[in-house]
Amino acid sequence: MMNKKTVFAAASLALASISAPASAAVLTFNGSGGAIWDYSTLTSTITVPDNFVVTDVNVILNGLSHSYWGDLVISLTHGAVSATLISQEGGSSNANGTFTFDDSAAKSAAQVNTGGGSFRPEVALTAFNGTNSTGAWVLKVADTAWLDTGNLASWSVQLTGNAVAPVPEPATWAMMIIGFGAVGGVMRRRAKVTVTYA
C-alpha cells in the first residue's frame, strides 16, 4: 500500500507533466531567392516543421537588388493570413542591401531606400500572432512595371512563440488518475472523526 508521501509525489508528478508552462522559442528559417523579372512574381516557400504558437514575426530579405523600388510589391502568407510588407514605396531609388521588416522598427515602409535597414511593414506582422508555426510560409515579390529588374539572394522568416505542450502519454494519464484517486482516499480517511461519548 502506498504511503501518503508516495501518493502525493505521484499526483504532483502527473499534474506537472500536463501543466508545465510551454517553453519559449525563437527560430529562424531560411528560404531561397531568385530573379525578379518585369511583370512577374518571384514566389519562395519555407516549410516550417516546428510546432508552436506564433507571438512575433520578422522577415529578412537578404541581398535584395532592384533598380526601381517603386515597382515592387512584397508580401508574406501563412495559411489564411497574408500581410503586405511593402507596396510600391521607395520611388525611383534602388533596392540594394538586406532589408528587415519588423513591427518594432523605427522607420516605416514608406521610408525605404537603398542600402538596407529595418522597416515596419505596411501591414503589421502581428496578423500572424496566434497562428500555428507549422507549414508553408510564402514570400511573394511582384514586379509591377516594365524596364527594371532585380534579384533576391535569399530570405528568412524569424518566428517567436510558445512551444505547444505535448499530449500526455497514456502512462502519464494512468499515473495521474491513480495519484488523484489515492489522494482522494487519503483525504476521506483523514475526514473521518471518531467521537467517544463518556
TrEMBL record:
Keyword Translocase part of the UniProt annotation: no
Domain P/Homo B: 18-165
GO molecular function terms noted in the UniProt entry: serine-type endopeptidase activity
Residues that span the membrane, as ranges: none
GO BP term (any one): proteolysis
Matching InterPro entries: Galactose-bd-like_sf (IPR008979), Ice-binding_C (IPR013424), P_dom (IPR002884)
Signal peptide extent: 1-24
Xref: SUPFAM superfamilies: Galactose-binding domain-like
Keywords tagged on the record: Hydrolase, Protease, Signal
Domain of life: Bacteria
Protein name in UniProt: Subtilisin-like proprotein convertase family protein
